[in-house]
Each structure stands twice: as C-alpha cells, then as structure tokens.
C-alpha cells in the first residue's frame, strides 16, 4: 500500500554568493545555516573557488548572465522571504545583483565580502563603489572591521567609532548596519547594530580558536534565515550572534588547517536532548538500585547531564527536586527535566569552560572517609577553598560555582575526575564527580561507594 505524503511547508531564503569547495564558507555555509534554522535555502552561485581549510588556491567568476539566470529561476518559482548576498567578486556582478534584489520586496542582508582574512583585497575600487548601489536595497549590511574601513574610512576600534561607522553605512543607503567586532582585539567580541532608532551592542566572550573561516557568511545567513522566519531585525541579530558563538566554540576538527565553523552545532545540540535526559534517568535508576545513600549529602544529590554543546542551565537535564535518602534507600523526588538543577548544573557548565568534553556530574557528600575513598579513582582530585573566595564573587548570586571550578582547574595538571568543595559555615562540604559520559560517571560513583563500604572498587 502506498503511503500518504506529508509535505512540510518551510519559509524560503535565497543566498547569492560564491562556492567554497572546503565547505566552511560561501554557499555551503549559507545553506547549512539556513537548514539549521528550519529555512529552505536556495542559491545563486557567483563564483567557484578551489579552497580548503588552509588556503584559497584559485577561483573563477561566473558570467553575469548565468548568475542572473539562477536568480530568475529561483525568484520566479519560490516564495522567497529573505535574500542574503556574499562574495560577488566583480563590479558587474555587484551591479547586477543590486538590480535583482531591487525587484523583490523582502529583507535583504548584504555581507560585503571585500577583504580576505589575510587582509588581501577581493575587489577593485570599481567593485567597492558598486556596492553603494546594492546598499540602497539592503535591510542590513554586515561588514567586518576591515570592510568598514574600506567603505567608510573609519576604523571601528571601539563602540563609539563603530556606531559612527554604522551611521556612515546607513548614509550610503542601508537601512541598518551590523559592525562586527571579531577582528578587534580583546577578551570579548562586541558587534554593534546601528538602526534608525540608535545603536545596540551584542557582546560575547571571545572563543580561543582560529577556526573562524566562514563566520561572516554564517552570521549573515543566520540573520537572513531568522528574518525569513518573521523575526524583527534586533531579535534576528541577537539570535544570529548567539548561533555564531556556539558554531565557533564547537567548531569541527576537519582538514589540516584550523578547522571549520560548525553550522549544525545548535541543531545537533537540540537533537541530543532526549538521549541526554535518558542517560541521566539511567544513572538515577542505577543509583536507586545500588542504594547510594552513603554518598547523598544533606542538601540532596543530583545527577546532571549537559547536551553536547550546552551553554545554559536550560540545556542541562537533572532530577527535579534532587535525590534524597529514604528509610529504604534513595529515591528521586520527581522526574528528570531540563533546567531542573541550578547548583550542580552551573558547576558543570563552568567546568566545561575548561574541558568542553565534560557532560555529566553528580554531587556527593564529603568527609574524611569519602576523601580516602576518592583516592581509588584513576585521575586527579582537585579542590577549592571558599576562604579564598573574593568578596565580590560571594556577593554575586550564583558566581561561586564558576569561581570554584576555575580555581580547581587551575590547580590541576589536567581535567580532574572529582572536585572537592570543603564548604564553610552554613555551607555543606561537597565533592562533585565529573565525566565525559554517563557510564563513566556511574562507574566513578560506584567506585567511591565501594571503597567507602570497604569493598574493592574497580578504580575506573
């Protein structure tokens, strides 16, 4: 028997850009990013490049007529809700694309690809001037600092100069400008959105990686995808910069160069939620069956699992209400859900800043006997002393876990398998066990429990 089809309706976006044979930038990055946002991506290729994670080895620009034919084919058939432009290569192409987008009444995001990461110019002066025609139809332009300097003569080295550059770009015809700060030195990246209503700064911690090839394409196509979904501009930019932060932090280790931006990191992260919650549930069941009451602290125990690229407490699964001792052993108060833990989840997220492969944690009671039992584990046991905690950290709600994790990791030679918090007046002493996977967390907990009960542990 034939099955009934179940068509899915998605908003459509069009990217007009060059092809990257290395898959990290250009059309390939745009289409992956749009798909990750639940948007159907269509394309018009302007140039074909021969490149990989190490270098661009050559490129050829397609004839203008061929580019126009691609645009016409897409726009005549699809209900395109947003357009994104990337590498346009030559002045005739820029002018042609300006004519194409002038005919559509949808948001247009222009990534003015003019300067390579190496600092080399990718357009001659005629091509740079031609961009002014395209800016007249742009909802948003997204230049990096080098491109801003080319277009406006202003080097956006701080927020004030970035805002001035954004206003200059609006004077060139764009409705709004996102002046990206990725090339400006500093511990944070500050992207400044300038609209007719003023300036908004989007700040993110800088990621210590060189795997940023294609980040400009990805950010612009993320904005376009969100506009196609119906977001207003500020919401679209906020979501796109968050998307970019995760895509860069959890980059893909491919090729012989620095690697590639992980365009599907957020999508894969959401897809892993069910598996993560089920892994936590399995550990909790094993704790009930084994009866880990000897390790349950007065405040209760919790098992926390983070999705592969978790960045917030809401992306960690834990027992709602914790695991507590009963007359017959231990039991979870309620079920497992995301965002259920605060204390242990924040500690795990802080530990992931030093080792992102860590995904599971459990808090256990701590005393001299437990300390002796921890010696059976293969791996380093670290600790932090609350007496050394600065007053400003104590005063900030929820900041102790981040400070404690940092102190512990800085004192360890590698990733600790357990971190001791000796507590203070009014704060119970606790040890947290850490692991890359749920099975290892379970084994380490049972090893400590066995040693505590004077039974041979497996030392895992």
TrEMBL record:
A Pfam family this chain is assigned to: Phos_pyr_kin
Record GO biological process: thiamine biosynthetic process
Cellular-component GO terms for this entry: cytosol
Residue ranges constituting the Thiamine-phosphate synthase ThiN domain according to the UniProt record: 280-441
Keywords: ATP-binding, Kinase, Nucleotide-binding, Transferase
Limits of the Pyridoxamine kinase/Phosphomethylpyrimidine kinase domain: 20-262
Superkingdom of the source species: Archaea
GO MF annotations, alphabetized: ATP binding; hydroxymethylpyrimidine kinase activity; phosphomethylpyrimidine kinase activity
Protein name as it appears in the record: Phosphomethylpyrimidine kinase
Record organism: Haladaptatus paucihalophilus DX253
């Amino acid at each position: 028997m034939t099955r009934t089809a179940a068509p899915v309706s998605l908003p459509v976006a069009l990217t007009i850009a060059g092809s990257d044979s290395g898959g990290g930038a250009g059309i390939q990055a745009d289409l992956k990013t749009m798909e990750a946002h639940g948007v159907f991506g269509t394309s018009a290729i302007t140039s074909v490049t021969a490149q990989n994670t190490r270098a661009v080895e050559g490129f050829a620009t397609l004839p203008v007529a061929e580019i126009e034919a691609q645009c016409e084919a897409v726009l005549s058939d699809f209900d395109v809700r947003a357009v994104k432009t990337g590498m346009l290569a030559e002045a005739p192409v820029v002018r042609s694309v300006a004519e194409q987008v002038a005919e559509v009444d949808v948001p247009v995001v222009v990534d003015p690809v003019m300067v390579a990461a190496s600092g080399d110019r990718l357009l001659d002066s005629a091509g740079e001037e031609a961009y002014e025609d395209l800016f007249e139809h742009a909802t948003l332009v997204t230049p990096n600092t080098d491109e801003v300097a080319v277009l406006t003569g202003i080097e956006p080295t701080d927020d004030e100069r970035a805002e001035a550059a954004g206003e200059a770009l609006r004077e060139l015809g764009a409705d709004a400008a996102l002046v990206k700060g990725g090339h400006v030195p500093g511990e944070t990246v500050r992207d400044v959105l300038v609209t007719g209503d003023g300036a908004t700064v989007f700040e993110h911690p800088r990621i210590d990686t060189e795997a940023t090839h294609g980040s400009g394409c990805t950010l612009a196509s993320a904005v376009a995808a969100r506009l196609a979904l119906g977001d207003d501009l500020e919401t679209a930019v906020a979501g796109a910069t968050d998307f970019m932060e995760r895509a860069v932090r959890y980059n893909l280790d491919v090729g012989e160069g620095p690697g590639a931006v992980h365009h599907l990191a957020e999508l894969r992260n959401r897809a892993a939620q069910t598996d993560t919650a089920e892994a936590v549930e399995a550990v909790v069941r094993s704790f009930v069956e084994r009866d880990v009451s000897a390790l349950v602290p007065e405040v209760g125990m919790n098992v926390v699992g983070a999705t592969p690229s978790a960045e917030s407490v809401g992306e960690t699964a834990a027992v709602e209400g914790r695991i507590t001792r009963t007359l017959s052993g231990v039991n979870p108060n309620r079920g497992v859900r995301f965002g259920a833990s605060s204390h242990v989840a924040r500690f795990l997220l802080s530990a992931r800043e030093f080792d992102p492969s860590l995904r599971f944690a459990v808090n256990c009671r701590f005393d001299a006997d437990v300390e002796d039992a921890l010696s059976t584990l293969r791996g380093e046991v670290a600790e932090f002393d609350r007496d050394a905690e600065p007053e400003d950290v104590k005063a900030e709600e929820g900041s102790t876990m981040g400070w404690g994790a940092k102190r512990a990791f800085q004192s360890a030679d590698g990733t600790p398998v357990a971190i001791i918090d000796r507590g203070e007046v009014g704060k119970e002493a606790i040890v947290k066990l850490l692991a890359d996977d749920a099975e290892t967390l379970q084994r380490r907990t049972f090893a400590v429990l066995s040693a505590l009960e004077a039974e041979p542990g497996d030392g895992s």
